[in-house]
Design brief:
Layout lengths: L4 H4 L6 H18 L1 H4 L6 H12 L3 E2 H8 L3 H13 L3 E6 L2 E9 L1 H22 L4 H17 L14
Antiparallel strand pairs: 1-3, 2-3
Helix pairs in contact: 4-6, 5-6
Amino acid sequence: MREDPSALHPQVPGAPAAVTQALELLEVAWERGRDVLTTAPVSTAQTRVMYLIQREPGINLSTLRHHLAVAAPSVTRLCDRLQAAGFLRRTTRPEDRREIQLELTEAGSAHLREIRRRREHALSQAMDRMTPDAREALATGLAALCEAVSEPLQPMHHQRTA
């Protein structure tokens, strides 16, 4: 019988280390399943752009650049490639024709659905090995973590030390 995973990190101060370990293991799993979990024909960076545009349909280049924290030319190149692949549409904003808004095409949305489908299948296989209580705890914890990281993180020099 396996040791209870919660016993490995029983104190709250160790929780960041446990989350870091989980993220590292997911990266390893993604790498092992590269053929199954690929984002091709677009890069990981382009996929990240697509996720942001899907969450905020009509986002402009400036706001997208702010979310990604990259230089304007980099965002433009990422969007150029996504548009060339048929995954992105640029249109003028009706209320201000000088501003360009970004939207996914149906092909772009379908590509993200397929990526999510494959990833959910891979995660389901791993989670099927967990107890129902552990799955519920994971889902609850991840929902809280997602809510917590929705705000921008502060650089380390701004954080208070305990």
